[in-house]
Amino acid sequence: MNDDARTTLGTPVPDPASAGSEELRDHIERTRDELGRTVEALAAKADVKAQAKEKTAAVKAQAKEKTAAVKDQAAEKAALVSDQLREKAGEAARLVKDKTPDPLLEKTAQAAAQVREQAAKAGQYAADKTPDPLLEKAGRAATTARANRTPLLVAGAVVGVFLLIRRSRGNRR
């Protein structure tokens, strides 16, 4: 036998004349193990379906992570925009109040008081004339709105910004 025939998968084959039967059996067992691992590795490389499933699972996991990151970023930006809008509205209200003459503020306060009084009367009249089931539903809706005030304000702010952007784009055309 030549030297190439005496090596199997990188391990030297013992010389049958000088090796004992136990040494030959051990070599055969090692060779079978190595050959089995090699066949398994080749089978795994040839199993396109399994590779596709693994790749799909990896892509899905990556997409979930990116989606979560985008959602977090969107929530942070919405909160930031909401805070900015609230701050700008407060500044605008202070500016208006500071620039408005005192007699006008007094007249405005009186008018507001009259409007509140008339609104209370109108509300009472409407409550007296509205059927009870409708009043109950309106009460539940108002309670739900009060309980979810922040999301409603954010949604309103987003809609307002959307409408302003749409309006400004319409003016450019």
Explain what the structure shows.
This protein is mainly α. Helix content is 84%, strand content 2%. The chain has helices spanning 21-46, 48-99, 102-129, 132-147, 149-172; strands spanning 7-8, 11-12. A two-stranded antiparallel ribbon has the order 1-2. A hairpin with a 2-residue loop joins strand 1 (7-8) and strand 2 (11-12). Helix 2 (48-99) packs across helix 5 (149-172). The termini are far apart.
Present the secondary structure layout.
Blueprint: E1 7-8, E2 11-12, H1 21-46, H2 48-99, H3 102-129, H4 132-147, H5 149-172
Antiparallel strand pairs: 1-2
For the structure shown, list the relevant keywords:
single chain, 173 residues, mainly alpha, two-stranded antiparallel sheet, 2% strand, disordered N terminus
Characterize the biggest β-sheet.
2 strands, antiparallel
SS class: mainly alpha
Could you tell me how far the N terminus lies from the C terminus, measured between alpha carbons in angstroms? 89 Å
Radius of gyration: 40 Å
**Average pLDDT across residues?**
83
The arrangement of helices and strands along the chain is EEHHHHH
